[in-house]
Amino acid sequence: MNARRILAQARFETVAVLRNGEQLLLALILPLIILIGLGRTDVLSSLSALPEGAEHIQVATAGVLGVAVASIAFTGQGIQTAFDRRYGVLRQLATTPLGAAGVIWGKLGAVLCVLVVQTALLLTAAGLLGLSFADPHWAGTVLALLAGAAALVSWGVLMAGTLRPEATLAVANLLWVLMASVGGLLFHRDGTWGTLMELLPPGALGSALRSAVVDGAIAWPSLLVLVVWAILGTLAARRWFSFD
Length: 244
What we know:
Elements: H1 3-18, H2 21-40, H3 43-46, H4 56-86, H5 89-94, H6 99-128, H7 138-160, H8 165-181, H9 191-197, H10 201-213, H11 220-240
Helix pairs in contact: 1-6, 2-4, 2-6, 4-6, 4-7, 4-8, 4-10, 6-7, 7-10, 7-11, 10-11
């Protein structure tokens, strides 16, 4: 693989996402709305989702960072890849010197670039809303974001490479709503359901980010869950992903 070609493809994919109104709505506008809503109201307290001693903006920031990862790595990338596959874009790129592997690496690079933009904007907004930047464990936050992105993008690409684009569009959006509402991404779920969710990518990502942002610690078990799902998703995508 040629690094220059991959970087060029990643730059092209990144610009395409940032110029797409629907992608921006999903990746930036909705997370910002959620951040303001949870950070400036008593919604978390009313849902008994505010840990003792934690501030609303801390829990809101952790949850919204998780939503941002799911938006770009799973839903956004899954839908874009599915329609690229439908219109033959993936097949045409795979036959160029970029190659099939270069196409995938380019998409991964675009996810990371957009994630950097999302994180910077959301943390800036959180700072304006009162988040203290001395509290989070920043290494733990970065590890959670990277592991979460790897896990979710692998399954998003697998979905895009096996389902019809219309099905991918419906399933990706439905799962985004479920991850944000009952999947443990925005806030911790108690009981058996919460324990089960922490064994799945959205719940593990939410738990890892809350540990880093709210508790100032690294949640190694949650990170391990994300790594395992990333490996499984990558292996499954290599086996069943179809460019046609």
